[in-house]
Amino acid sequence: MQTTSFSQFNIPSIVWASPPPTTTMLRGKTTSSQRLSPPYAVASSTSRHQVTHSMPPEKLEMFKSLEPWVSENVLPFLKPVETCWQPIEFLPDPSQGPEQFEEEVRALRHRASGLSDEYFVMLVGNMLTEDALPTYETAINTLDGVGDETGCSPCPWAIWTRAWTAEENRHGDLLRTYLYLSGRVDMLMVDKTLQYLIGAGMDIGMENNPYLGFVYTSFQERATCWSHGNMARLATQGGDPMLARMCGTIAADEKRHEHAYTRIVDKLLEVDPNATMLAIANMMKKKIVMPMHLMYDGQDPNIFEHFSSIIERQGVYTSRHYAEILEFFITRWELEKLQGLSGEARRAQDYVCRLPLRVRKLESRVKKIEPRQVKFSWVFNKQVSV
């Protein structure tokens, strides 16, 4: 179920269509490329027109100069490993002996039995989003001026990215183990989907540009926080308070990470308001796509659209949430109050500040589509409503 054709109005939607064939801009050079054939391609999908290294070289020094600020204002959002929660704290613990372990697994399965197949489709989607971390760390490390050039760089930007990845890695581990123990999903199909997803990568339009990259991560962390928080709510309603606690704990991590990325954009607006305002508008015009938008399970070429329809229908993440996140950042970053912008940046400011109203107007005109049944390989090919 696709709720509306937002793309014709250049307005973001929770459901994104397949982008056009790839065009890569390499510092003034344009090359066309076709996506690889399966097994690593997303079935019948192609990439959007890509631009790379769009940040002027002179801006690199600015990001270098911000390293002490990152150490003082961003790295404190990380938690020491010894104080972090770990997945085993929420799951049956085999170290307690076989009888206790089996009893805890039976209790987990009993709680899981009250949740719908639609819920497990959404939980698998959230797990896949978290488990595709190799793609995200790679993408951040391609951002000019802030990447980890050696794999173990002492640069504060690189320290943040590695430690952020390490914290996020627990999310996928926790959800994956729960899904495995629940017995509710076909883990073979889940694992295949993850391999396809990491192999496909993601095409979110960051252009190796840290301005664009940090706008995207700010938005995406907030969206992910809401998604996990809503999954916690539904788990409580479905009779699994432990799963609700898991999802809520993950949401709290996402919120903390959101604060870090939001603070980075705060600083960029302070030191370079024109470029940052243009970056915000750039990402909004492209739409903030989910990082798993190139998902494929080897069978359904439209699996991402089907997944998106379920989370829209279930209220886990919707176009209304998209508008509310936009409104939040417009207020949080005080975009309407920015003064002294260039003419181009003022136009970008006007576009972004008017965008939530346009999204809400389009949402009010959405023609609701009756649910239909689609088979999802993740839940033993059962039919679920999308």
Automatic annotation (TrEMBL):
It holds the Pfam family FA_desaturase_2. Keywords: Fatty acid biosynthesis, Fatty acid metabolism, Iron, Lipid biosynthesis, Lipid metabolism, Metal-binding, Oxidoreductase, Transit peptide. The keyword Iron applies. Residues 23-36, 43-52 have a biased composition (Polar residues). Residues 20-52 are annotated as: Disordered. Its cofactor is Fe(2+). Belongs to the fatty acid desaturase type 2 family. PANTHER family: ACYL- ACYL-CARRIER-PROTEIN DESATURASE-RELATED (PTHR31155), ACYL-[ACYL-CARRIER-PROTEIN] DESATURASE (PTHR31155:SF34). This is Stearoyl-[acyl-carrier-protein] 9-desaturase 1, chloroplastic-like. It comes from Solanum pennellii (Tomato). The gene is LOC107021885.
